[in-house]
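User: Hey, my collaborator sent me this sequence without any context and asked if I could get a structure. I don't really work with proteins. Can you help?
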Amino acid sequence: MYRLGHRRTHHYLIGGALLLIVGILITGGLTISKTLFQANTVLRQSGPVVHTVLGNAATLQHVSKSFFTLDVPTSWHEVPAPRVTYTVYSWAGATGADAARRLDVYVDNVPLSYAVNRLQPVQADGDHFEVIGTTSDNCISFTSRAPDSAKTGYAPSKWTGVNFLCDVINSERDVVATGSPEGLNITTLTGGTSGSHRVLLIYTDSNPSPDYTIFTSIIKSFRLS
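Assistant: No problem. I've predicted the 3D structure and written it out in structure-token form, which is a compact way to encode the shape of the chain:
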């Protein structure tokens, strides 16, 4: 009840109390929300997990002839040499992709006019070869046909400075041979007990995706004995 000359003290007290409560609630709410939404996650990057995956590398067999040795895949076996007037030793695969692979090793009286589709440059290093470059592309892609190539079936070519004969007629084959700066199809190895020998290695891989690393591996394993 209002009386003249008296202040309404209890209404102010109630209002003040309500404001105080509201203030406390707001402050508490802000504190809680700040705590809830504060980014307190600590990220720790774990160390890398490294696994070593071993490839299915072909196992090799060591082959020994009268005056040389080399390593060929274990699934390969010696096969009859081509019927030519040269001294040739031949190996080939029998199963799977290896059935389309063959190696012919010509020694001493090597065929100087043998034409191939690719070249693997080498040079003599005593009793063994040193591979000095990568296997060439199919020579048909970088060889100009000589005027008489239609008659002979081949044309002079060169890969990384090494001369060889490109088989332009049979350009779809995948036959690769060793070749050195010494001359056409000639690499002379020395140091074995039997003296010096001219050696020519020819590899054929008729698979849709030929594997020339097999050939370079064989070349690196070759030694005069």
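In plain terms: Residues 41-57 have pLDDT under 50 and may be disordered. You can pass these tokens on to your collaborator as they are.
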